[in-house]
Design brief:
It catalyses: all-trans-beta-carotene + O2 = 2 all-trans-retinal. Its EC number is 1.13.11.63. It is globular, with a radius of gyration of 18 Å. It has one domain. Helix content is 78%, strand content 0%. The chain has 288 residues and is mostly helical. It has helices spanning 5-22, 30-50, 52-58, 65-88, 90-106, 115-132, 134-145, 150-174, 180-194, 197-216, 223-246, 255-278. Helix 1 (5-22) runs antiparallel to helix 10 and helix 4 crosses helix 5. Bound molecules: beta-carotene (BCR) and fe (ii) ion.
Length: 288
């Protein structure tokens, strides 16, 4: 079995978090969890999308300054569009966000199985917390959207066992060529079962999704890419700040940063997905 840096990294981070949470009993309050998610996602999650500009350049999407400008205008216009729609219909936007995210997250296993199989894995990633921690999910969704979304959590809770069975089938089929898929699935299941939903999401998003994206798109940490990633991440953080300030409410001092973080992720996801799932197809994950 050939393990890549991203396989090893996720298993290592997952084990450390599981040990910290169970053996050392590092129980974090809800507010500390929110603070942790906001910081870790900003530092380790955002940069994977901040490289979209480098990827587009590599794909030859903009060969002239005019095209480069067009790329930025298009990207920012899509972000603004999603944020406006979100302000009118947050619950529908969250549901749509979950749907497109499951497709995007399924891409983490592109090359291991076909597109339908990938989507099943993506659905499993997002629906497991609803099966294990339904009450917390209702609280989180209401913090993010301001609405009580019991029915959305119930639908996800029903999808979880179906997606889990699908994941077992997909993993068994891939067992010969990609045994590490099974290890990752077991890790994801254990994390979802053990950790609160926000921490589970943070470990998966930063420990697997972001890292795999960096490795599979051939990110080399030279000074140019590090500079670009940092600059675009800072702009994205500034947009997040603006979102939080524009909705500020002293009674919800920590709910607002969480809400702004997920609004920002949802808005960035649309142009990020168009680029990654539309142009960078078949990011090689499977060991040859
Ligand atoms: C290039 C560019 C830029 C930048 C960008 C960036 C930085 C990006 C990023 C991107 C990204 C960074 C993306 C992301 C994505 C994400 C996602 C896709 C997520 C999802 C999630 C979810 C869906 C979740 C869910 C949940 C909740 C909410 C709670 C708990 C539980 C669970 C987990 C279920 C700017 C704008 C500056 C400018 C223009 C150009
Ligand atoms: Fe991504």
């Amino acid at each position: 079995m050939i393990l890549r840096a991203d396989n090893i990294f996720f298993i290592f981070v997952g084990l450390v978090c599981l040990v910290a949470w169970t053996a050392v009993d590092l129980s974090l309050s809800f507010h500390s969890q929110i603070a942790l998610v906001v910081i870790v996602v900003a530092v380790f999650g955002l940069p994977h999308g901040a490289l979209d500009v480098v990827i587009s350049q590599r794909l030859g999407l903009f060969s002239t300054t005019r095209r480069l400008l067009g790329f930025h205008v298009f990207y920012l216009a899509l972000v603004a569009f999603v944020l406006v729609i979100w302000s009118f219909a947050p619950a529908w936007c969250l549901a749509g966000f979950l749907l497109i995210s499951s497709w995007h997250f399924g891409g983490d296993w592109c090359g291991v199985t076909n597109r339908a199989g990938c989507w099943i894995l993506g659905i499993m990633v997002l629906s497991l917390p609803a099966a294990f921690n339904a009450e917390q999910m209702v609280v989180l969704y209401s913090t993010i959207t301001g609405e009580s979304l019991h029915s959305l959590v119930a639908v996800q809770g029903m999808l979880a066992p179906i997606a889990l069975v699908g994941a077992v089938v997909v993993s068994s089929a891939a067992l010969g060529r990609n045994p590490h898929l099974v290890v990752e699935m077991v890790m994801i299941f254990t994390l979802a079962w053990t950790l609160p939903p926000l921490l589970y999401f943070t470990v998966y998003f930063c420990g697997l999704h972001s890292m795999r994206h960096l490795v599979s798109t051939g990110f080399l940490p030279n000074s140019r890419t590090v500079f670009i990633a940092s600059a675009y991440t800072l702009v994205a953080i500034a947009i997040g700040f603006a979102l939080a300030i524009s909705q500020w409410d002293a009674n919800e001092a920590l709910g607002i940063p969480l809400k702004a973080t997920f609004q920002l992720l949802a808005a960035l996801t649309v142009p990020h997905m168009i680029l990654i799932d539309g142009f960078v197809r078949d990011i090689p994950y499977a060991s040859e």
